[in-house]
Amino acid sequence: MKRISSKLALKWEGLARPLFVAALFAFTVAAQDPLPSWNDSFSKSAIVQFVTEVTRQGGSSFVPDAQRIATFDNDGTLWVEQPLYTQFAFAVARVKTLAPKHAEWKEQQPFKAVLDGDMKTLAASGERGLVQLIMATHTGITTDEFQGIVSDWIGAARHPRFQRPFTECVYQPMLELMAYLRANGFKTYIVSGGGVEFMRPWAEKVYGVPREQIIGSSVKTKFEMQNGSPVLMRLPEIDFVDDGAGKPVGIQKFIGRRPIAAFGNSDGDQQMLEWTAAGPGKRLMVLIHHTDAIREYAYDHPSPVGALDKALLEAKAKSWVVVDMKKEWKRIFP
Amino acid sequence: MKRISSKLALKWEGLARPLFVAALFAFTVAAQDPLPSWNDSFSKSAIVQFVTEVTRQGGSSFVPDAQRIATFDNDGTLWVEQPLYTQFAFAVARVKTLAPKHAEWKEQQPFKAVLDGDMKTLAASGERGLVQLIMATHTGITTDEFQGIVSDWIGAARHPRFQRPFTECVYQPMLELMAYLRANGFKTYIVSGGGVEFMRPWAEKVYGVPREQIIGSSVKTKFEMQNGSPVLMRLPEIDFVDDGAGKPVGIQKFIGRRPIAAFGNSDGDQQMLEWTAAGPGKRLMVLIHHTDAIREYAYDHPSPVGALDKALLEAKAKSWVVVDMKKEWKRIFP
User: Fold this and answer.
1) What pLDDT sits at residue B20?
2) Which of A232, A285, B90, B104 could form a Cys-Cys staple with A143, CB 3.0–4.6 A?
3) Could you tell me if the ipTM is greater than 0.90?
4) DSSP-assigned letter for residue A13
């Protein structure tokens, strides 16, 4: 700002500047599209309308801040889940690292498939296969050690098709959506079938979701003393499977409130959306439909990963929002 | 404010008022003791010094906001746990309500003790007894139904000695401490051996701790459809026991971060304090020692409820803060 007379300066300080700043701010907010990577089509309108209504003070659909809970599935909703869940890729890498100590894996599925590079057999082994791999590769170490291993791997690994870090295979429109909700007083949670401790090391930085707002599947841990220091050992025993009907269970367990908005992309998210829909007042249920084989992937069902069938039928029957990725997203990645 | 000349008014608006307000605010903050119910003795000094150090920007002990996690035991740390855990009292009331449908309880412990009013046998049945009562009285209903039952009971029940609602048998010094920590950027969590769904209906209002920051013991729940609406049924099966070595497990499971401050009162809190103490940087570990038979209760060990023995020895050996309730608290209840 150029130097001006002291009287003017006083006036500027006293009255003009605050008004100017306020006006500029209002203009900026109005002019700034909070969802620039979304085309101005049905899904975007439905989302913006929902947020506008639940945040309008005195409106009939107003929801107090504390109850503005939004839950997001992770795989296929916030980042790419094809051709294999990222955590599968991590487990595969761990199997290869640990294989020299496990001669028996050469003849034992799904380890054999991993070591043979037989991705088709591996993908077909589904969640059961993932569980076996997780038990063998994710446990027997402390929570701190596991966090270090995940951080190292995710920093170095690349998606096989997009040749970039998995943490850059996240959906730009969804990042904008989460930021938009948070700017409107929402608390955003991840509610994923994936392992909670696999997500925590990087999700805070990538999604802006703090560690304590990440809900996922888990193994049991045990508190014990190691050389006089307490550690939590990861045990080869499933504690909780946060998928399908497990998602409402996880939501109640960890949050204790029903979300008013929920976002998913597969049949594993169906019960989370049903649970969200069944509460009183305005609700937003959204399914991301992968329709873009060029920029990402096109699949619903059958698919060994992220199958979308019954949830899509229910979404259509109940007028939930179904996002057509190809038509409604201007860009996919950041 | 009296009407003054427009020139002066402009000056007031432009410069004097903000300065005045800032000065007044600083004065108020300095003059206002955030812990008025604490005597100016060792524990208060240690707490204030810890908070001052971890919040001092640029200081060697500075901790960023996101890592300012403080965990509080509930029974005996935030509210009265004598002569029986409040949840025990709730279970007792439920047993009496449900007894007409359970003739077998007349001969079966701990139900017989409840129906005979034999509080000594009941207290002696300890956690095992509580679990049996919980399975019989806390399950087989939906989460929403359970919440309604707890709310109704806690609104009407009275503490047998203090003849006031249990939610008014909370410790005023601890309410001040939680508010003080929150005002300094801490996220306060309850980490209790008690049932999480027993605490959630009232703890938000009483302690200012939101439902999603309450960690406790739990039963398994199951998502199912009831007349076309989804519900979560409470099953007669323990999901998680958030006590003793379970507390660090619960903290990692639900928060995913190690607390920098932890508050307890019994051996059931020992591992939580050890887990907190073992992290890097400044740490605050506090035990409330019940020494006031006149205003509250005097007990440590042996005690069927809230026994404090090994944790007290460790606290003394490691210079954790031990609050002498009788000497250090000006008042007990709000």
Assistant:
1) 52
2) A232
3) no
4) I
For residue range A166-210, what is the model confidence (pLDDT) as tens digits?
999 999 999 999 999 999 999 999 999 999 999 999 999 999 999
Q: Which residue in the set B13, B248, B278 is minimally distant from A14, CB to CB?
A: B13
Q: In chain A, what residues touch B224 (CB-CB under 8 Å)?
A: 245
Question: What single letter denotes the amino acid at residue B195?
Answer: G
Which pTM value belongs to this model?
Answer: 0.89
On whether the CB atoms of residues A135 and A236 are closer than 8 A, the answer is yes
Could you write out the DSSP letters of every residue in A17-57? HHHHHHHHHHHHHHHS-S-TTB-SSHHHHHHHHHHHHHHST
Distance from CA of B278 to the nearest CA of A (A): 7
Nearest chain A residue to B233 by CA: give it.
A249
Round to the nearest angstrom and report the end-to-end CA distance of chain B: 36
pLDDT by residue (tens digit) across B231-273? 999 999 999 999 999 999 999 999 999 999 999 999 999 999 9
**Does A4 have pLDDT greater than 50?**
no
Whether residues A211 and B245 touch (CB distance < 8 A) is answered with no
Query: In terms of DSSP H, where are the helices of B117-236?
Result: 119-124, 126-137, 143-156, 172-183, 196-207
Interface membership of A19 toward B (CB under 8 Å): no
CB contact under 8 A, B210 and A66: yes
pLDDT score recorded for residue B129: 83
The residue of chain A nearest to residue B196, with distances taken between CA atoms, is: A253
A57 burial level (CB within 10 Å; 0-12, 13-18, 19+): exposed
Give the pLDDT of residue A5.
Answer: 43
Q: Is any Cβ of chain B less than 8 angstroms from the Cβ of A256?
A: yes
Record: contact B256-A218, CB cut-off 8 A: no
Q: Contact B256/A66, CB-based, under 8 Å?
A: no
What is the C-alpha separation between B331 and B334, in angstroms, rounded? 8
What would the pLDDT profile of A81-138 be if each residue is shown by its tens digit?
A: 999 899 989 999 999 999 999 999 999 999 999 999 998 888 788 778 878 888 999 9
B151 in A contact zone (CB under 8 Å)? no
